[in-house]
Design brief:
mainly alpha
């Protein structure tokens, strides 16, 4: 019974939600709203479970005297101070809103503690993003090179000084490609392939002025918008379709009881 009852509840709930999408009439028409209300209630209990798990994990760190015990103590103290402060402000303010303009909780804690900490976290995160971008943009193959060039063109089109810097950046990129193809041609023995590589290198050199100094100097913002609206959107839609299909497959597995990891 410990397995059958949760599986039966999951199956009936999933089936009713699917029926509610295709039958907009009562009693199925308002089932989605009812389930959303139940979801809010259940999520409230999961929040309590998450708080209990967080505090218990950090209490055990303090008991074991781990190297992170001071940080665990700070987290626990911050949690209880914030909780007590919020409850006091709810009882003190007439509108019972701790985030009202007259609330010291909003004035001091939120504006002078939470927002600076949030800004610091995102500032640190930018270094991880830059590190990941450096690893992703290393032009070891044609796909990485296209990703690098596209990212550079989009950044040039979105920054104020990008239009003035575009000719120089495009010239450097085209020269790098020209040198790459010419260097590759030196190691090729077949005459036809070698001539093709040299011709491609010459094409990159010849395109520096018409593309870098004529077209991109005037139209780099429009080209950046085209990259974001056409190729980027096509890839994004493909990813979203894959995510949707994966979600449908996982939902069917959960409804039919094939996927039971949520019961562990």
């Amino acid at each position: 019974m410990k397995k059958e009852v949760p599986l039966a509840i999951t199956f009936i709930s999933g089936l009713l939600l699917v029926l509610a999408l295709f039958i907009p009439h009562k009693p199925f028409g308002n089932l989605e709203e009812i389930f959303n209300d139940w979801f809010i209630i259940v999520s409230g209990f999961t929040l309590l479970l998450g708080i209990d798990s967080l505090l218990g994990y950090n209490f055990h760190k303090i008991k074991r005297k781990d190297k992170d015990a001071p940080f665990a103590l700070i987290l626990i103290l911050s949690f209880f101070i914030t909780l007590a402060w919020g409850i006091i402000e709810i009882l003190r303010t007439p509108e019972h809103n701790p985030f009202s303009p007259s609330s010291t909780f909003s004035l001091y804690f939120y504006n002078y503690i939470f927002i600076p900490l949030q800004s610091t976290m995102f500032a640190i995160l930018s270094f991880f993003i830059a590190s990941a971008a450096y690893r992703a943009f290393r032009a070891k193959e044609i796909n990485s090179a296209l990703l690098l060039v596209s990212a550079v063109l989009v950044m040039l089109g979105r920054v104020p000084l990008g239009q003035d810097a575009a000719p120089y950046v495009i010239s450097v990129i085209f020269l790098i490609f020209a040198v790459y193809f010419y260097a590759e041609s030196t190691g090729i023995t077949e005459t036809r392939t070698k001539l093709i590589y040299i011709l491609v290198a010459l094409i990159f050199v010849a395109l520096i002025y018409p593309l870098g100094w004529v077209y991109f100097k005037k139209h780099i913002p429009e080209f950046a918008d085209w990259l974001m609206n056409i190729p980027q959107m096509a890839g994004k839609r493909g990813i979203m379709i894959g995510i949707a299909l994966g979600g449908i497959a996982m939902s069917i597995r959960i409804i039919l009881g094939i996927e039971r990891t949520y019961m562990k």
